[in-house]
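To assess whether ligand presence alters the predicted conformation, the chain was also submitted together with zinc ion. Input:
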Amino acid sequence: MRCPHCGNFDDKVIESRTLAGGEAIRRRRECNGCGYRFTSYERIEDKQFMVVKKDSRREPFDRAKIERGVQRALEKRPVSQMNIESLINEIEDAAAILGKGNHEIDAKALGDLVLEKLAALDKVAYIRFASVYRHFENLDEFVSEIQKMGGKSSRKGKKS
Ligand SMILES: [Zn+2]
């Protein structure tokens, strides 16, 4: 597959896994040119897993989006890339189990899942994610908001 980072067509599969429910196979790939890691899916065409937003619109489940949010929350935290990857895998698998019946999951349930998994991995990242996420309707808004925050660790002194 073509590397989304450098355009190289030479990659190797580093992990291949059947998702819970068996509707899809996920492959983690590593570009032999630049080392960039990306994910490909093989699935039955008419059964794409969807995320249902609060306004009832649906969008395809996007692993990369979750990964961006989690990466941001974990910025400068002592958590290895491997742990992050397995965290994302756990989130994805749990989402697939939750949404098994109709191949979709509520955006809120997905966000809660991310929170739950982050809490188990890193408390600081959990608080970062939670403090921002709770104010938003969905992961899109969260990701753009946390990107605005950048790497700053300063917080507004808001008491609840
Ligand atoms: Zn590459």
